[in-house]
Queue: 2 jobs
Job 1
Amino acid sequence: MMRFGLPIFSGLVLFFLVSPIFVIFPLSLSSSSVLTLPVPGYSLQWYEDFFFSERWLLATRNSFIVGFATMFIAGLLGTMAAFGLHASEFRGKKLVLGAMSLPMVVPLIVTATSMFLAFSIVGIANSLWGLIVAHTIIAAPYVVITVLASLQTFDMNLLRAALSLGAPPVTAFREIVLPMIMPGVIAGAIFAFATSFDELVIAIFITGPGQFTLPRQMFAGLREFMSPTISAAAVIMVVLSFVFLFITEAVRRRGERLKSSPAEH
Amino acid sequence: MNGKSKMSWLLVAPLLILVCVGFIIPIGYTLIKAIKNPEITAALPRTTSALENWEWDGKSPPPEAVYEALIADIEQGDRGRNYGSMTRRLNFEQSGSRSIMMKARRIADKIEAPYAVSLPEAVPEFGDGDIWQLIKQNSNPYTARYLLRAMDLTVTLDGSIERVASDQAIFVDLFKRTFVISIWVTVLCVFLGYPTAFWMSTLSDRAAGYVMLLVLIPFWTSILVRTTAWFILLQREGPINAALLGTGLVDEPLRMIFTRFAVYIAMVHVLLPFFILPIYSVMKRLGMEYVKAAASLGAPPWRQFVTVYLPLSMPGVAAGAVIVFMLSVGFYITPALVGGLQDQMVSYYIAFYANQTINLGMASSLAVLLLLFTAATIAIAKKLLPETGSGIRA
Amino acid sequence: MSNPVEPFVMFRNVDKSYDGKTNVVDGLDLDIAKGEFLTLLGPSGSGKTTTLMMLAGFEAPSAGTIQFDGKPITDVPTYKRDFGMVFQNYALFPHMSVAENLAFPLRMRKVAKPDITAKVKKTLDIVQLGHLADRKPGQLSGGQAQRVALARSIVFDPKMVLMDEPLGALDKQLREHMQLEIKRLHHELDITMLYVTHDQTEALTMSDRIAVFNDGKIQQIGTPSQMYGSPQNKFVAGFMGENNALNGRISSTGEDGLVSVHLTDFDADMKAVSKEPLQIGDTVKLMVRPERVRLVEKADAGGPAGAFACKVTDTIYYGDHVRLVFGADLNNALTTRVPHDSGSRDWAKGDAVLVSWEPRAAIVFQP
Ligand SMILES: Nc1ncnc2c1ncn2[C@@H]1O[C@H](COP(=O)(O)OP(=O)(O)O)[C@@H](O)[C@H]1O
Ligand SMILES: [Mg+2]
């Protein structure tokens, strides 16, 4: 029984995991405005709706602006911080690491409420900047973690060698350290982008209609009137997730290949 | 400080400052909001200071001076915002207080001294001490009342703490419900995820790579998109009902959306990858050697599993379960979209108080308790398994 | 070289502490002359690497000054110091080819492209690796990688080269070969080298001078023959080469710097050099090198003056020589080497012999 039971059970679980995601593909191509299966006919009308709607286009643009800004800022600050944490043993290091990983464990709703209150006071609520700051804070810990992980396998003597050979610290970092930890940086940056791109709870709290992101616009759509355009938007987001997944996997596999290449002996 | 730690600090500083200013200080500010109580004193400075020396005997109203102070506060204060917040604040403590205070404001211009006589004539509630005692009790700049209320407790006029009326006692149930939903979601994830991860760990590397994609795809797909998928699937006219009707299994569409069932199925769907990924990496590291060793010693399969494999994989199970539990305790979007009002969790009420009724004291108090709840989970997890936190990502 | 007018490198009273409590380098005074090959020798953890790191600029001294060419360098950052460095694990940049690794320091110095190419080629030829210019470090053997690291440390004509146990990861044969190669480079390039190792043979064969480290302090500094022949203290005597350390007590003192020692484990009185003021009755360790111990068969009547009788407790075969062990207690045993060739006598367990040594070959130290 175990011989067939386990694969069948696992197969069903995996089917449960992926099927809902793929179901929205045909639905988004339906010619009917009732979201049901089987679809009566196929059309691209909901995608047309999406690409000709001011609101959806604005939301898409906002999502990309915030996502890229988060990716760059969190990627930069997170990489810097990870390197700082790795480079030396200093007093308070544990505390710093703890403070930086807090945004990962504090429930998002608490983060969102707090940022909403604080950002209103300084006047960056209802602005893309506020959202970028918020997303950078919740995404940066993931960059720190992935970059720290790739620094674990980085030999600090390489940095020393570069310095002794006449490279100023910044050059040494750029030419020696960065290329070696790039897989970690890229993985962290992509995860930062994806985190921002998916984030909804904070967006609900600190954005007005002018700053709606894709998830925020979808959420509004779901609550107000259920239009099939949402399924088109969902498909677009799923396709983007595939892209993130693909890049991350490619980077990871490349990193593994580099690691398993002939050793130094 | 030597040169190297100076460099470390310089590199760490930008992110650390950003996290402090943009996250830690705001959270601290929110926590303080849970005990801040400025509304009454802001709107009624004279009244509250006049009430300072007054002792409530259980029924008698205060002296004329207090009445004069109230009229002065109404006439000289800003009649709009502050007064409004004050009435809402009192009403939160004692429903009905808002209309009493509103009436007082309306007739303040029209009555003459002595107000101790004229005000009760117009608004009889001012004739006894209760409303005054309520104002006096809430004229402290800090209060524990929001936190008490978040545990369904309230302070009576004579200062004792008791349970709120049953129609207002929603929060203990809310926390219980949040706990129960999170536990069930965790149990379901373990039940579904453990065998699946185990099966995956027995596959060849190549096959496991492809099967892993089936876990990674949902992992990378946005929570909202996945919830939306369930939102669509579970509709009355949705694909599942259509299929059930089509096959004749049911005669009329099942009600699935906006039920607890929908909350469970969508939350498990969202959180299952968070369980499978860490437990899979533990199992991959364990390999089958131990089970083989047990088999070579003659143990029957189920015994090999229970006595050898299960204990060895337990740290992974615990780590994954803690992650799932912690994430589900803070869930907001999924229950909000696919659940009914009876299926909402703590987060929903925090959002409700923060965005809809703008009762920040209540929102903050619930946030404090949710934070404590999360901190307790982490603390227990740390105690049980020293190696936790070894990465949500496999 | 032995008496430099103006030392090239000068450590004065240098302390280094990582934790603010214990000094891992303690009151270090060290001069290095221009063109010299100086080795820091000492057990693991004795502070050699730390000393090197301070000179390279990776660590700042907690106290004291370090001067280079007459100027303090404590405030000069590493990348401006112009010292070549070789690390034990080579530290070649894995994402750059051999040629790119060598070009790196030249690029940093903004050397013109054609000059870089020429210089890289010339340096690779010096270490006989011209044919591997396009390989990645991952494709090199240990010995090749070590030579690339060496080449990279000299390609930019550094003011001095620092090496931290550069041969530690190589097997014995390759290590001996590389020792010669480094020695040859030192002569050819006439460059100052500071070399760190815990291997005393390596130190003895390569160095102009050796500084023996222990517990963050220099125990003794001098030429290899000084270090080997007249150690200043028990630590150096024990660390440099093989040495017997026998328990004894001073039985008489003389004016010629010689003392008589009663050897507790052998019940014999032997003469030895004393470098410390010792009183009659003091317990001491008497150090004598195995190859300085002389044996005479008991059968030969008399024997040299000051010989004592004992029995062989063990023989160990080494191919070119045999070691004989005397004394019951293995920890305080006396070992000696006797050549092993066709003409020599075969010793066996239990053989009775007379043991002696030149008084000047033995030294006593306080235990
Ligand atoms: N970065 C460091 N932080 C703290 N202690 C260190 C550090 N580097 C070395 N030490 C300590 O300093 C002492 C000397 O180390 P080191 O200079 O590396 O010795 P050696 O190179 O002679 O083996 C050792 O006890 C070592 O543990
Ligand atoms: Mg060392």
Job 2
Amino acid sequence: MIKTQNEKVRELFLYVQERCLWQFFSRARDRETNINAITRMAGELLTGTRPKIETPIEKQCFADAVELVVGIKSHQSWILEESPEAISGLMDELKDELLDLAVKSAKNGELTWQAY
Amino acid sequence: MPLVLLECDKVIPEREKHVYLKVEGEDTRDYLPVANAPTIPGSLSERGCSFCGAKLVIGGVLKDTIQMIHGPIGCAYNTWHTKRYPSDGDNFQLKYVMSSDMKEGHVVFGGDKRLYEAMNDAFNEFPHIKRMIVYTTCPTALIGDDIKSTVKRVTQERADVDIFTVECPGFAGVSQSKGHHVLNIGWVNDKVGQVEPEITSEYTINVIGDYNIQGDTFMLQQYWDKLGIQVIAHFTGNAKYDDCRAMHRAKLNVVNCARSAGYIANELMKRYGIPRLDVDTWGFNYMAEAIRKICTFFGIEERGEALIAEEYAKWEGKLNWYKERLAGKKMAVWTGGPRLWHWTKAVEDDLGINVVAMSSKFGHQEDFEKIIARGRAGTFYIDDANELEFYEVLARTKPDVIFTGPRVGDLVKKLHIPYINGHGYHNGPYMGFEGFVNLARDFYNATRNPLLGLAAKDIRAPRRSAVLEAAE
Ligand code: SF4
């Protein structure tokens, strides 16, 4: 059965939600850093591009992205059939959905607490 | 389904905000229980005090450090030897705890002198120990004892000692969690950066939030050794005080318990630019993932794959033996917080066990985000549960085994439901590949143990009825 774009994004989102601790760091800004960098790098890896890594934090995001790609390839194997443009589109939507879950619409009252 | 008001909570309806029953399709944007909030009057909480969070969980694990508790003797006893964290030394940390043993007179006239004497007595008693943590407690905080100045005086008089102060009395926060926070921030402020470690590998990490429960740290250390990774500091399993003063020199922070030690990982990232890699170390699948991520970070992927293959070859058969027999069993997890999110998918993926109810004593909303993201629909997620809630949720979910602490464990024993020590373990360690087989074995043994069934039999019954008949 052919999946719609929404269904594909939803599958990726549910996988990340269940699997990845980096989306739930304590501070909102760290969550944003992780989600932006890891989804971008995962998109690059899925389309055969080596992500640019300059800082230790980017190296950590790279390690998380590599593992995410391994997971996506085995759980959402349909991704192997997608074009590079389609993969970047999917990763962008995945990023937005994760940012919404973990930051924008999050009910966690401590995300921007100064003591953290 | 929205948050749930349990039958037993009708008289304290505020508890509704702390109890969530997940429904398919919902996520934490829909519902997130209130957490890390004051216990509601009328609810018999299972929480510990904030001092306990600092001493029992983190500081007391250090193997070469005198634990000096400035307060009444009970504060010391309540946080002594109830956790099983061995060390590769002489287990000084399990054997001894020091107290200034405050009495009414000291509360009235001040306890600084008493503390000064106790600190010196302790150093004299254990001349080979040169490190100490001094903790304040409720009474000594209330009377305003100046612990820092006493510590300064002792440090000036004894050139070879180093002392850390934790000013976190029991009432400082709503639960143990505040003690974790205070100790983390205090340590990074006062102690990190003071010691330069000997670097023996180009791959250096701190392992943060692992307390060597029944040898967890020893288990993981085998992996780091095989991978050629140097651990600068374990925060704080099997650690020396000075190891943790050198944390600024690691290239990567590997974080297991993000609740009790995420703060120091955040600060090390902010102050020293050391990245934070959050991992799970319980479960085959998760442990392999953690090893792969760490190895990718250092560019030593082949070593990681070789180690994982070796461990799977050794342990996977055993795990699968248990999986065949445990698949479909139901489990409840009533512990501090992080083990809920570490374990729920691990037992499901590796052993086919379904977690039907989870309760956290001191987790924050961040923990509930992770727990609910990973947990199943139809499962209860409860913050700071009380005894009556436990009974009601048990009746509704009927777990086969409950992972919890000895206090709640005794409670459920009366219902003849097996419990496994979710804090100190029954026959651990539980981390790593071999560790997860240990967990599976304990689970299996708990479900097969005939004693709980026999305990339900009232052997007095015939005699009692004879007595009753005679009375009638
Ligand atoms: S609550 Fe206060 S008095 Fe009680 S054990 Fe904790 S620190 Fe001691």
